[in-house]
Amino acid sequence: MAIYNLGSINIDHVYHVPHLPLPGETLSAEGYTMGLGGKGANQSVAAARAGAVCFHIGALGPGSDWVLADMTGYGVDLRHVTRGDVPTGHAIIYVDPAAENNIVLFPGANRSLTAAMIDAALAEAGPQDTLMMQNETAMQAEAARIAAAKGMRVIYSAAPFDIAAVRAVLPHVSLLVMNEVEAAQLRAAEGQLPPMDVIITKGAEGAEWISAATEPLFVPAFKVTPVDTTGAGDTFIGTLAAGLDLGLDRAAAMRRASATSAVQVTRAGAAQAIPAASEVDDFLRAQSRAIPPA
C-alpha cells in the first residue's frame, strides 16, 4: 500500500503581523520565516510522518535543492518530482496574534506538470494504493481518471476552490474533502453536496464525514492553544489518508488526523510543524489520561 500525492510544492514566506493587512495598508511585520509549504507538500509530509509510504508527484524550479532535502528528511519519496526552468511556487503568508492567516499564492512550477509525467508516476500504482490531490497543480482530472481506472482510492481536497476543477475531477473521486467555506461554495454552485463520501473540516469545532452509505461521523477537535494555523487542514488530510492506507477505520483515522492537527497548530510553520507519529501517540495518551472516569 502507498500514497501517491499529486501536489503543490511551495516556498512559504511567513510574516507575523499585529493584525491582518487592510486594503491599501502598509504594515510592519514583527517577524519573518521562510520554509517548506504548499498544500501538496504539507499533505505528503503529514502522510509520511504518520507512517505511510508516500510518493510525491510535483515540480520544482531552479535553486530549490533545500526543498528536496527537507521533504526527503521528512520521509517523502521524491522520485516523481521533476526539475525545470519555471520558478518554484511560493506563498506570502500573513499570521496575526490569534493565529489567523491570509495567503497569496504564486503557482509557478506546480502548473508545469504534463500528462506524460502523470502516466509515468502512476505506472506502478494499483488498487491497494491511494491518490491524493488538491487544486494547486495542473493535471488533476487526468490523474484522477488514471487512478480511478486502476481502482485506486482517490482523495481530493477541493482547495483552493474552483468549481470547474471540482466538476472535472468529481466523477473519479472516492473521498471529497472541504472546509466549511468550500462546502458552501459547492452547495451554491450545485444546489447540494454530491452523493458520495465527503469530509467537511470545521476548524476548532472538528470534522464531519458524510456518507451516502453509512451514518454521518463527527469527530470533535482537541482543545489546544494555537500558535499558527497554517497547514492545519493539510495536516489533517495527509494524516487521514495515511490512516486509511494503513488500515484504520474511518473513526480511528479521523481521530488520529484531528490529534495530529492539534499538535501541529501549537507550533509555528506548516510542514516543519507536523509531528511524528510517536508525538501523536504521546498526545493521545495524555488526552486519555486527562479524561476523568465516568
UniProtKB/TrEMBL annotation:
<feature type="binding site">
    <location>
        <position position="228"/>
    </location>
    <ligand>
        <name>K(+)</name>
    </ligand>
</feature>
<feature type="binding site">
    <location>
        <position position="269"/>
    </location>
    <ligand>
        <name>K(+)</name>
    </ligand>
</feature>
<keyword id="KW-0418">Kinase</keyword>
<dbReference type="GO" id="GO:0005737">
    <property type="term" value="C:cytoplasm"/>
</dbReference>
<comment type="similarity">
    <text>Belongs to the carbohydrate kinase PfkB family. Ribokinase subfamily.</text>
</comment>
<dbReference type="InterPro" id="IPR002139">
    <property type="entry name" value="Ribo/fructo_kinase"/>
</dbReference>
<comment type="function">
    <text>Catalyzes the phosphorylation of ribose at O-5 in a reaction requiring ATP and magnesium. The resulting D-ribose-5-phosphate can then be used either for sythesis of nucleotides, histidine, and tryptophan, or as a component of the pentose phosphate pathway.</text>
</comment>
<feature type="binding site">
    <location>
        <position position="267"/>
    </location>
    <ligand>
        <name>K(+)</name>
    </ligand>
</feature>
<keyword id="KW-0808">Transferase</keyword>
<feature type="binding site">
    <location>
        <begin position="233"/>
        <end position="234"/>
    </location>
    <ligand>
        <name>ATP</name>
    </ligand>
</feature>
<feature type="binding site">
    <location>
        <begin position="201"/>
        <end position="206"/>
    </location>
    <ligand>
        <name>ATP</name>
    </ligand>
</feature>
<keyword id="KW-0630">Potassium</keyword>
<dbReference type="Pfam" id="PF00294">
    <property type="entry name" value="PfkB"/>
</dbReference>
<feature type="binding site">
    <location>
        <position position="179"/>
    </location>
    <ligand>
        <name>ATP</name>
    </ligand>
</feature>
<dbReference type="InterPro" id="IPR011877">
    <property type="entry name" value="Ribokinase"/>
</dbReference>
<protein>
    <recommendedName>
        <fullName>Ribokinase</fullName>
        <ecNumber>2.7.1.15</ecNumber>
    </recommendedName>
</protein>
<feature type="active site" description="Proton acceptor">
    <location>
        <position position="234"/>
    </location>
</feature>
<feature type="binding site">
    <location>
        <position position="234"/>
    </location>
    <ligand>
        <name>substrate</name>
    </ligand>
</feature>
<keyword id="KW-0067">ATP-binding</keyword>
<feature type="binding site">
    <location>
        <position position="230"/>
    </location>
    <ligand>
        <name>K(+)</name>
    </ligand>
</feature>
<feature type="binding site">
    <location>
        <begin position="10"/>
        <end position="12"/>
    </location>
    <ligand>
        <name>substrate</name>
    </ligand>
</feature>
<keyword id="KW-0963">Cytoplasm</keyword>
<dbReference type="GO" id="GO:0004747">
    <property type="term" value="F:ribokinase activity"/>
</dbReference>
<dbReference type="GO" id="GO:0005524">
    <property type="term" value="F:ATP binding"/>
</dbReference>
<feature type="binding site">
    <location>
        <position position="264"/>
    </location>
    <ligand>
        <name>K(+)</name>
    </ligand>
</feature>
<keyword id="KW-0547">Nucleotide-binding</keyword>
<dbReference type="InterPro" id="IPR011611">
    <property type="entry name" value="PfkB_dom"/>
</dbReference>
<comment type="pathway">
    <text>Carbohydrate metabolism; D-ribose degradation; D-ribose 5-phosphate from beta-D-ribopyranose: step 2/2.</text>
</comment>
<feature type="binding site">
    <location>
        <position position="136"/>
    </location>
    <ligand>
        <name>substrate</name>
    </ligand>
</feature>
<dbReference type="InterPro" id="IPR029056">
    <property type="entry name" value="Ribokinase-like"/>
</dbReference>
<keyword id="KW-0460">Magnesium</keyword>
<comment type="subunit">
    <text>Homodimer.</text>
</comment>
<dbReference type="GO" id="GO:0019303">
    <property type="term" value="P:D-ribose catabolic process"/>
</dbReference>
<dbReference type="GO" id="GO:0046872">
    <property type="term" value="F:metal ion binding"/>
</dbReference>
<feature type="domain" description="Carbohydrate kinase PfkB">
    <location>
        <begin position="6"/>
        <end position="276"/>
    </location>
</feature>
<keyword id="KW-0119">Carbohydrate metabolism</keyword>
<keyword id="KW-0479">Metal-binding</keyword>
<feature type="binding site">
    <location>
        <begin position="38"/>
        <end position="42"/>
    </location>
    <ligand>
        <name>substrate</name>
    </ligand>
</feature>
